[in-house]
Amino acid sequence: MKVEMKQKIHKFIQNGMYILLDINSGAVHVVDKMIFDIMDYFDGENDGEVLAELAGKYAEADLQEALEELHYLMKIQQLYAPDLDVPPTFKQKGLVKSLCLMIAQDCNLRCKYCFGDGGSYGQERAIMSPETGRKAVDFLIEASGPRKHCEMDFFGGEPLMNMKTVKAVTEYVRQREKETGKKFKLTLTTNGILLNDENIKWLNDNEFSLVLSLDGRKEVHDAMRPCVGGQGSYDKAVANFHKCLDSRKGGDYDYRGVYTYLRGTYTKNNMDFTKDVLSMNDEGFDILSMEPVVLKDSPLGFTDEDLPRISEEYDKLVEAYLERWRKGKGFFFFHFNMDLSNGPCVAKRLSGCGAGHEYFAVAENGDLYPCHQFVGREKYRLGSLDEGVTDQHWPQYFRESHVLNKEKCRDCWARFFCSGGCHANADLFHGDIRQPYETGCEIQKKRLECAIAVQAIMKLEKNK
Amino acid sequence: MKHIQTVNQPTLQLTRNSGGCGECQASCQSACKTSCTVGNQVCESKK
Lengths: 464, 47
Known about the structure:
The complex is a heterodimer.
Chain A: H1 3-6, E1 9-14, E2 17-22, E3 27-31, H2 33-38, H3 47-54, H4 60-75, E4 98-105, E5 126-127, H5 130-143, E6 149-156, H6 163-180, E7 183-190, H7 197-205, E8 209-213, H8 218-224, H9 234-248, E9 260-266, H10 274-282, E10 287-292, H11 307-326, E11 332-333, H12 346-351, E12 359-362, E13 367-369, E14 383-384, E15 388-389, H13 394-400, H14 407-410, H15 415-418, H16 423-430, H17 438-463
Parallel strand pairs in A: 4-6, 4-12, 6-7, 7-8, 8-9, 9-10, 10-11
Antiparallel strand pairs in A: 1-2, 2-3, 4-5, 12-13, 13-14, 14-15
Helix pairs in contact in A: 3-4, 5-6, 7-9, 11-17
Chain B: E1 4-6
């Protein structure tokens, strides 16, 4: 089989199911074992070779029938679909549409895996002033040009430690929306400690999407996410999350509009993280996300040696996820969610996360960075709210650092799903945003295989 | 088909020339935030 054809498909077994993905069309085919074997040889025009290779294993008539089906898929461009190049719809320059505000570079927790050094990002602990926040709103309105939808994420540290600025910025956003016709989506990420009744009401009234941090089981969460004084934060966080979610029931809250979901991080200390996902669900939360920690040279971080164990755990999670779904007690797990028919366009898949060209972070002092994880990495400072974008190199470099320009991504089967991974992680491990963090890639690929399989299984079982 | 079940109606090839409106949500992949890969997103115009 020709190498260039091999790079157009990905076949894998998940939950005992044989799956064939056509990379350039996005078609997902559930196949039998014979087709799975045929795809070791079939390149679209070598039927004779396939028949010769598999003659001892399958009857010729069956192989002929299978080959006919594969030729039909090729005809309708769902097998060996043409390679995707940079389309004309992928504009040369990015349009900044999303800002992350470091509302408080300070935190009331001391999470063991925090990349932001307890919220400070290696700098003095400080909070953003209302004036800086308002300048960020003006910056985004100007930078987003004709685009109607803008996004603003209130982040930290812990943003609820600086409600004064959160409120001032929000008020200004609403004023500027009326003046400009723009529509802002507002999101806030919180550890929940300060999520009291007053804050919950205010966040609901102002239609904030919320990302709530919880790591699963109480013992796991408390070990990783202690308060400044060292005591666990689980009980307080969970009590507040319940209050918050209860207050949002019956409103217009779903994950695509104004959403509320819980997210966790797993580390080397809880590679049995299925238990943590299920623990959150048992606690009554049903929109969930759980991510691997990314740390270099840390006992909590992962290496390639951990991959078999992590892979095995994702298999378990798939089983548990489907078991609850089949019983009518399913939950929403962000990373298994995938619309295989209506996913993003090619241009979006090349834009990826948008860091550095569609998405900037604003440090508490108004400095601009490609994203929140780059805050404090001075090499990547792009400018400031007062000066504007003064760096001419990085925005264009980030724009062009898409999967078709990265050597390790170009031939990877997952390129149009992950869009090249996280630039900040690539920089952390290799000092180069074009060299992906390989361990993270392997975890991502396993998770994508699980997601594709979950969607396929659910579709086929629903059809029955 | 007897040996193959296609589970989706893929549209990726169709979006080579029709997409790019940019109205969709940013899709940060970092673990600490929205942790969203583009693969987990739906096209804003098809919702």
